[in-house]
Amino acid sequence: MSNNLNQKVQELPAGDFSRALKGDIKINVGPLLKHAWDITPRILLWMIGLFIGVVALSFVLQEIYAVFIPTYSTDLTPEQQAALIMESNMIGSMITVTLLNELIMAPFTALFIMVALANVANHKPNMALLRAGLAQWKSLVLLLLVKMVMILVSGVLLSWLFFLNTTLAMALLVGFGGYIQLSLILAIPLILDRRLGVKQAVFGSFIIVNKAMFPVLMLMILMFIIILISVIPLGLGLIFTLPMMANLIAVIYHALVGSTIAEHPALQTEGVR
Questions:
Q1: Is pLDDT at 272 greater than 50 in this prediction?
Q2: Is residue 4 classed as helix, strand or coil in its secondary structure?
Q3: DSSP 161
């Protein structure tokens, strides 16, 4: 059984890490968006399977939280939960649990990018590749912490603006938070594919994305519009567009940096359909 995917989709030219850091690689919005669209159907079942697994894990975690924090009990109405939070001063606990949940889920949600990286390299994902992705859990969790700290620090630094203009302050907070997320969009692929440390991945992603900010921003805006449209009327389009989002990140990464995932030991074995 071949480990390669169907070659009907034209192969995407690979970028170069060092040239991307210098800003020497130019990418075109239309072809990359089309490529992400074209390659999504062939790994759709993998993405759906991962989604079911992540949702199931999240459900189990919520049940565990319900044992220790009453506000997570499904037996309570939203009004009762809100009243219990205020009466028992559990807002801090709720925030802690939310952060804990995000940290636990980080390595599992990163697997969507791992599958997309294999896809963009025309390779079938397999369980060995997913296990290799989970093995990077420490770096993935630390990366999420770094993002949270950066957003928190920016919020603290901009908080004084609330005394001058609340609307402006909120706009800047949202804008700066979005800028951080966009600038670090390649950090997960750099960790999973290049096995870089968190510091190198953060700086690498920040430099590369900012060197190609306009096309990357346009791609993300168009992808966001596509996702919004897919929600209408019943949200069934998300079955396709959310996996496409992961593929688009992998496509941007491959076009700028050049994926080396094809050389991964997990893909040197027989592929799993």
A1: no
A2: strand
A3: G
Q: Compute CA distances 104 → 96, 98, 166, whole Å.
A: 12, 10, 34
Sequence letter at residue 201: A
Torsional sign, CA 152, 153, 154, 159: positive
Q: Which residues of 158-182 are buried (b: 16+ CB within 10 A; e: fewer)?
A: beebeeeeeeebeebbeebbebbeb
Q: Where are the alpha helices (DSSP H) in 72-165?
A: 78-88, 91-109, 111-120, 127-134, 137-158
Q: How much is the pTM?
A: 0.84
Q: What's the Rg (C-alpha) of the chain?
A: 20
Q: How far apart are the C-alpha atoms of 162 and 166, rounded to whole Å?
A: 5
Quick one: DSSP state of residue 266? Answer: G
Q: How many angstroms separate the CA atoms of 181 and 179, rounded?
A: 5
Helices (H), 231-261: 238-256
Question: Does residue 233 have a cis peptide bond before it, meaning omega lies within 30 degrees of 0?
Answer: yes
Exposed / middle / buried, residue 155 (Cβ in 10 Å: 0-12, 13-18, 19+): middle
Say how far apart CA 141 and CA 139 lie, in whole Å: 6
Q: How far apart are CA 4 and CA 121, in angstroms?
A: 9
Is the distance from CB of 124 to CB of 5 less than 8 angstroms? Answer: yes
Q: What is the pLDDT of residue 98?
A: 72
Contact 125, 114 (CB under 8 A): yes
87 contact partners, CB below 8 Å, separation of at least 6: none
pLDDT digits (tens, 9 = 90+) for 140-155: 999 999 998 888 888 8
d(CA 53, CA 57): 6
Q: Domain spans of the chain?
A: 17-267
DSSP 162: G
Whether the CB-CB separation of 36 and 251 falls below 8 Å is answered with yes
